[in-house]
Every structure is written in C-alpha cells, then in structure tokens.
Design a protein that fits this description.
seven-stranded mixed beta sheet, two-stranded antiparallel ribbon, Aminopeptidase, 33% helix, 5 helices, single chain, alpha+beta
C-alpha cells in the first residue's frame, strides 16, 4: 500500500538520501552527483512557487520515493508530473510503475484528462520508463541548457480509458 506524505523538515534527510541514491540522475538534472539539504530546500521553494504538491512516497512503513506534481504546468496549463524519484534500492522491482499508477488514479479523481511530463533527453532509463507507461513525446526543447523531451498521456478518450482500445 502506497501513501503520500507532504514533505516536511522532519524528513529532509530522508529525501536527501533518496536523491543521493540516484547519483546519475542528480548529475543529469543538477550537474552534481550528491545533493545537500539546502538543495532540497531550494526544490521545495520552487515547488511552492509553481503551486506544486510534493510528497514522500511510503510503501508500508518505508519511505521509498518522492513525487511532485501540479495541476497547471507553467508551459501548457495542463496537469503535470514534475518529479517521480525512487530510492535506487527499489529500482527494477515494479515499484515505480505502481507508484505512478497511484498518482494517475489521483489525477483521474481530480478530473484530469491529460498528464504532461518533461524528461531529460540524456536520462535514457527514464525515456524508456515513460514510454512503457504510454507517454508520447510531442516536443524537444532546452531548459536551463539541458535538452528535454516533453511527453503527454491522455487519461480518458471518449469515456474509455486511454490504452484500453
């Protein structure tokens, strides 16, 4: 059973540990392999400025990931997932897809028709992951001098679930 817990100062070290279990991602996204708590606080501030919700993801009694999302992307105004990061100890076990499915159901309950994401083009495991979940690339762009792919996924199509055809 997954749970989302709003980020708070009491868990900042755990959030930092989750990030730092993914040094290759940190290098792509932040130009350094290890983040400090001040880096995490900067992410919290940015999330707040964007109107995003940021949560630690629990599985049972363990905190295993981070999710950040908003209902209005600064680019398109559509719901967007800005971060889905799992502790590397849980990679390759299906937790990422299951965690994503919980988020997708939340978006459906909020009447979202589409979810958008941006993926670092150099993050090949993420490119493969999002494609496996039915996301379609619609744009390539640069953000902060990094090549990004913009993806979307339709959640409903004519009353039917996307992907059920």
């Amino acid at each position: 059973m997954f749970s989302f817990t709003k980020v708070q100062e009491a868990h900042i070290q755990k959030e930092c540990m989750i990030h730092n279990s993914n040094p290759a991602y940190n290098k792509i996204a932040y130009d350094k392999q290890l983040l400090a708590v001040d880096d995490i606080r900067a992410q919290w501030k940015e999330a707040e400025e964007l109107g995003n919700e940021r949560h630690l993801v629990g599985y049972g009694d363990r905190l295993i990931g981070i999710i950040e999302y908003g209902m209005q992307s600064p680019n398109s105004g559509n719901p967007w997932l800005s971060l889905l990061l799992m502790d590397s100890a849980y990679h390759g076990q299906g937790f990422g897809k299951k965690m994503y499915r919980v988020y997708e159901e939340l978006m459906k309950k909020r009447q979202a028709d589409v979810i958008e994401i941006a993926v670092h083009a150099d993050n090949l495991p993420a490119v493969k992951f999002w494609a496996s979940l039915g996301y379609l690339k619609y744009r390539e762009r640069f953000y902060e001098n990094k090549r990004m792919y913009s993806y979307y996924k339709l959640l409903h199509r004519g009353g039917e679930e996307a992907g059920d055809e």
